[in-house]
Amino acid sequence: MAEQPVQADQLHAMRHSLAHIMATAVQHLWPEAKFGVGPVVENGFYYDIDLGETKISEEDFPKIEAEMQAIIKSNLPFERSELPIDQAIAWAQAAGQPYKEELLNDLKRAGTTIAKDLNADELGTIAEGDAQIENVSFYKDGDFTDLCRGPHVESTGKVGAFKLMRVAGAYWRGNEKNPQMQRLYGVAFATAKELRVHLDMLVEAKKRDHRKLGQELDLFVFSDMVGSGLPLFTPRGTVLREELVNFSNQLRQNYGFEKVWIPHITKKDLYEASGHWAKFGDELFLVKSQETSDELVMKPMNCPHHTRIYASQPRSYRDLPIRYLETTTVYRDEKTGELGGLSRVRSITQDDSHAFCRQDQIEQEIDNLLAAAHEFYATIGMDLRVRLSYRDESDAYLGAPELWASAQEQLKKAVVSNGLSYFEQEGEAAFYGPKIDFMATDAIGREHQVATVQLDFVMPERFELEYVSDDGTKKQPVMIHCAIMGSVERFLSVYIEHTAGKFPVWLAPEQVRVISVNQEPATLEFATQVQTRASELGLRIVVDNSNESVGKKIRSAELAKVPYTIVVGEKEIASREVVPRIRKDMAVMDVQLTVGLEQFLGTVANEAKARVLKTSL
Amino acid sequence: MAEQPVQADQLHAMRHSLAHIMATAVQHLWPEAKFGVGPVVENGFYYDIDLGETKISEEDFPKIEAEMQAIIKSNLPFERSELPIDQAIAWAQAAGQPYKEELLNDLKRAGTTIAKDLNADELGTIAEGDAQIENVSFYKDGDFTDLCRGPHVESTGKVGAFKLMRVAGAYWRGNEKNPQMQRLYGVAFATAKELRVHLDMLVEAKKRDHRKLGQELDLFVFSDMVGSGLPLFTPRGTVLREELVNFSNQLRQNYGFEKVWIPHITKKDLYEASGHWAKFGDELFLVKSQETSDELVMKPMNCPHHTRIYASQPRSYRDLPIRYLETTTVYRDEKTGELGGLSRVRSITQDDSHAFCRQDQIEQEIDNLLAAAHEFYATIGMDLRVRLSYRDESDAYLGAPELWASAQEQLKKAVVSNGLSYFEQEGEAAFYGPKIDFMATDAIGREHQVATVQLDFVMPERFELEYVSDDGTKKQPVMIHCAIMGSVERFLSVYIEHTAGKFPVWLAPEQVRVISVNQEPATLEFATQVQTRASELGLRIVVDNSNESVGKKIRSAELAKVPYTIVVGEKEIASREVVPRIRKDMAVMDVQLTVGLEQFLGTVANEAKARVLKTSL
């Protein structure tokens, strides 16, 4: 009989219950433990724990896990109870749990307005409702009681399969002025099989870690002198960037988009006009002019600049759509999390575009952009599905409701006509317009948000954009924001892991490697001839004529994940034929065939030009 | 008999004497005039004058010029005299010349160390020598006496030909806290003929003013909200940028340069290491992170970043030269002078490259770069000459003298082997190495500094760059900086004026315009067919099917300086032949020939691909 898949909220309760079970086990092992908060996170749970001088390490995991298994085996019920807030505080004092006491005191003082200081997960463990707090709830499993909103599973036996993953430092309530606690992470799934799939995926993900591959394949580097979150791209990494960007651009140029160019800084006046200054002013990089009194900022987006080009001339209804395309770098002053990687950077290159169109042109424009995004992801071999993000009935949205209704309908039509897999979600629109978000699934099953197409009814109004309509009156255009990769850097982090560095020929920084069997002048000359011919065909080729064994040189080409390698010596010079070694993921059969040199190079060049996706990832 | 050309110092004396004559005339017309300084500048002279409430306007120029001509006609001698400094001060007081008095007092107080507060021209009017001031010199022409170092021409009759050009506000000693004076500018040449040539050139230059053409041809715009010195490029201007940049890059990619990518900001640590922070720290745009304590700056150059890519791996003598290429924008916190133009901007895009090579590779590398620069300027039709800038015998230079001697010899060899017109200048090298500066002459005879190739012995040392040499020891590479256009923006300002906006086909934002003779469906359909076919061939084509007369549409294409225009109607549809209208500067003969449509489009596409320079500027 097939297993019933568990519901999301049931899985949530399992994971949350495991956080309690882990705390129970820790309390058994270290009775002096002080507990912070223990929420559910993606794929699992954590608990923040303070053991004073004692520090839990990964070596302690087996004994914690064993104790957790014992608690699970006992199948103790989760029992809910309530206490008035003052009694709850007394309980925390008596239990020697100062963090819980602090939370309860805050809760008493501020009711749920405390929400602003805590993230949603942390809050979830405290209280419910949004009125003045009277009672707070507790959950008890065996000898462990915790302040908690619940819900939990019925008993400790019903928590599925779990594994402790890591322990990290975490400041109490995220504030570095507070004591540092230890955050114990675990993953959990409803079944052992699901857990196994997840753990296997993590092993595979680690092998493909783009930070590791970025170094091994010499794609990008960081420098302490330049700073964190600011990658520098080597020649090989730059090939990858440029080929992807050119393709992303070309797909839109086919639909009439034209490149423009804007500077990376602006007076803050531009964002005062757009409204971003009021909203995001404290998240921007401020630029200080020492020579003038200008107050400048680095651009965190491109749209306000692009409106200035639109507005530089009078526009007629016949001129529309006007379509600007620009791949340019924006800067966002983020606390850089994951160091050394491209997932989160401060220099964010966007393959951005903005179309200004009439309302009756929305569907066609969206249709074009969806076709471009669809072709992009089909070409690189990632499955896409899209979310249609609509407004809800609240008044959080700007722009006329009829305009929204018409626009949402046009979005959906375009999605359907492009045959895209989609789902609809009300209340997910931006306040300025409905949008389409693209999710791409990578080779190991992870889903990443990538492209986006967004309608915007607000910015044209703020910047007083207009065109003369066919009846001579002035009307406001609609703006359509689109990025196909989104952030090029973040996309690369996804794509490098998707391919594990085994790029298709059109993207491979090195497409062909020529290995000389010896260092005879005739061999070297022939290798150079091959290189020259390949370069003429626009191929990226490297000759390895180092004084190493052929075996070692082949191994080196394999490590560099070069799609095609040819070994040249006396025989190849005489026959002008080669036996190309094909990178394993691309080979249809496990045999090597002899082919004329010219034919081989021509085939590779055509494969690159046609952006063939031969690789099976 | 041919005129003897005047020497540079003689022309200087003429212009300086004209400044005195202008002051003399102004004193005759406005006896209350207070005088500041009156130096020689390029092509002429100026004098700063304070008339209190009265303001001189261009309407006053005829009477000032008439008075100057009278003084010239009188041929009064310039008489030199000297006074002890205290008597000179008394003279200034008695004459009611407070600005002169201030200069003399400063001079007395500080000797010539005052030089630091004044620019060289201003100082030139005051005193000579660098010891303690005793006497200061005066020059007198007629009833006007001025504190002045001289030299002057013998008498007022010997000043050649002049014309007053404009009057502008100027703060006393360039400080906005000081009183605002009026600066009267004039141009002057040894002969009336030379003056006429210069004035004609100015008329022509005005017609070609790139700010005017930038607007007329819709190439770039400025926005008050974005800020001065920060141009935004429209689709048409971006075509121009991209085509030029791609060509500049391609020429170096042919010699093995590879593109890299760096962010626009960096921690200031990078410039502390390079030494730039100490030298130029107060000229940088500082970037303030609100989220972290990082001290960041916008990059004003790319080389330090590029060294970080070089240094990210061990390098062997066999890997060299390593050649990085990147067109990227640097930001310099300049007081923006000429508003609305590209000559002086704060966002400066450089077509930059850096080669890291062994000492024995310098000549070949330089040779390659010179060939690239030579081809670039030959293709766009500007004459080049180069300055070889060497060190002198002073100790102002870093790096071993043998290295300098060898490098300078290699530079010269490369210049000679490229058949470039050159001159040599000692003492013009950078402190870090010798260089080659390229000067290009535009269509109306103005010379502009453009490309540069610079050797650098210092930065590799500061950044501890190294490679393993063939004997296994670690050695330091030499770095070669090169930019072919230099600043893309500044280059565009020169190039737009050079061509007067009549771009060759490969650079024309719009290469072909199709004009429909009427709005019949068949005509419009044919125009669209032509457009589709042209786009397939990679041409930039625009269809004008507006409801205007053919004459008006042709005029509009002429104003847009489109290289080729074709008119299509019934006849063209039937014959599939067209009679292309060729932009006048490109036409070999003043006749129009009938040609097959396909042949026409193919010819234009080939012309663009081959970067043919047909235009006679």
What would you say this structure looks like, in words?
The relative contact order of chain A is 0.08. The first copy, chain A, has 19 helices and 29 strands. In chain A, strand 7 (161-171) and strand 8 form a beta hairpin. Chain A is α+β, with helices and mostly antiparallel strands and 617 residues long. Chain A has an eight-stranded mixed β-sheet with strand order 11-15-16-23-20-19-17-18. In chain A, strands 1, 2, 3, 7 and 8 form a five-stranded antiparallel β-sheet that branches. A four-stranded mixed β-sheet of chain A has the order 25-24-26-28, sandwiched between helices. Chain A starts with 7 loop residues before the first helix and ends in an 8-residue tail after the last helix. Chain A folds into three domains: 8-206, Threonyl-trna Synthetase, Chain A, domain 2 (Threonyl-tRNA Synthetase, Chain A, domain 2); 228-264 and 299-499, Bira Bifunctional Protein, Domain 2 (BirA Bifunctional Protein, domain 2); 512-610, Rossmann fold, CATH 3.40.50.800. Mean pLDDT of chain A is 90; it is low at 113-131. The longest helix of chain A is centred in the N-terminal third of the chain and has 22 residues, at 8-29. At the A-B interface, strand 10, helix 8, strand 11, strand 12 and helix 9 of A face strand 10, helix 8, strand 11, strand 12 and helix 9 of B. Strand 13 (286-288) of chain A pairs antiparallel with strand 13 of chain B, so a sheet runs across the interface.
